[in-house]
Amino acid sequence: MLKTRRMLIAYPVLGSEGLQSKISTHFGRAPCFLAVETRDHACQAYATDELRADGECAPLRALARLGVREVHCAHMGRGALQRCLEHRLQVFHTTASTVEAALMARAAGLCPDLPDEALCAGHHDESHHC
Predict the structure, then answer these.
(1) What are the tens digits of pLDDT across the range 72-112?
(2) Any idea where the domains of the chain sit in the sequence?
(3) Number of H helices, E strands in the chain
(4) Which CATH number among 3.40.50.300, 3.40.50.720, 3.40.50.2300, 3.30.420.130 corresponds to the domain 8-115?
């Protein structure tokens, strides 16, 4: 029997509410990340502070070690994007408000690469002003 490899997607979220978790407007400011298995949508929340290494804006190394292959977000800093690419994480854009809606958009092929206008130059609050 052929085994398929599991595929995990990470979403920056405002809290741990499973697939109903609200997606943070900015990757680097999210208090949590939700790792979602693409086959069965099993998910696990991780507090950003638990995953973050000293000097990291976002816990990219830890997400990659967990097996995350894709990151879906609305906005991200240029440095975080570069670090995602260094960790071989693909980055996609989502405008969905919940993880469930984002998964549906992905299944429909509606998640493009993160566009230049979604890249941010600096830190700001959750209301987002890129």
Answers:
(1) 999 999 999 999 999 999 999 999 999 999 999 999 999 99
(2) 8-115
(3) 4, 7
(4) 3.30.420.130
